[in-house]
Amino acid sequence: MSTRLNLDEEVRLYTTNAEREKYGLLATLFGIIVALEYLERAYVRDSVPASEYSPACTRLLSQYKTMLKLVSDDVPSIEQFMARYRMDHTAALHRIQVGVPATVEHSSEAGPETAKWVAETTQNFITFVDALKLRMRAKDQLHPILQELVTSYARFKGSKDWEGRSKMVGWLITLNGMKASEELTEEQARQLSFDIEHAYAEFFRSLSGKDGGS
User: Fold this and answer.
1) What's the gap between Cα 184 and its chain centre?
2) For residues 119 and 121, what is the distance between their CA atoms, to the nearest angstrom?
3) For residues 110 and 192, what is the distance between their CA atoms, to the nearest angstrom?
4) Which of 81, 96, 121, 164 makes a 20 to 30 Å CA pair with 65?
């Protein structure tokens, strides 16, 4: 006697916790691509101003890169992923392939190198802030990210006069003096987060005032 199929029964995509986590990560990647598609289309229609579009797009691109590393075993390429799930999201795919917001890609106020540096520095800020939000506290977790941030930040000739630079260098010195596995205290992490957020805001104010050219 054949087993009757219950159409009301939920179909499980997974049978183990590892499989559940995998599908959860793939669903998150799918969601990031959809969000990026809507953002790109909204920007083209002037439904979103550049001041809101740029940081939102940069954050989505940063999240995409992070997520892609987590699912690399199951996603050989983003094109294959989108084809597998029949995603017709050409605007998102283009933005992912370019790697920077449209405001940087089509910038008429800065040279290509300056535009690239702005995009890279912005992404480095977001990556570091996200690391703190994920409760990364050890030297070997934070030092490489902060070092990359300070390196990209220092490319701008105006940065030598920015308060944020001295604070970030100070944190680099603090981390340098720690053992690899040693962790920041919660008080230190809170202060570091405040200093980075302040430096991030100062960075954008300087760019808006055209003080941050290369």
Assistant:
1) 23
2) 6
3) 31
4) 164
Amino acid 213: pLDDT:
44
| Of 62, 68, 70, 210, residue with least CA distance to 148 | 62
Phi and psi at residue 185, in whole multiples of 5°?
-75, 165
Q: Nearest 10 degrees: CA dihedral of 63, 65, 66, 67?
A: 80
Q: Record the tokens describing residue 107, joined without a space.
A: 């910038």
Instruction: Give residue-wise pLDDT tens across range 14-23.
Output: 677 777 888 8
Residue 91 to residue 44: CA distance in whole angstroms: 10
* CA distances from residue 204 to 5, 17, 35, 212 in whole angstroms, order as listed: 58, 42, 24, 9
- The structure tokens listed for 134 are 């994920």
Token look-up 């520095």 returns 121
- Specify the residue for token string 């030598």: 160
The model's pTM? 0.53
The strand pairing partners of 138, in sequence order, are 183
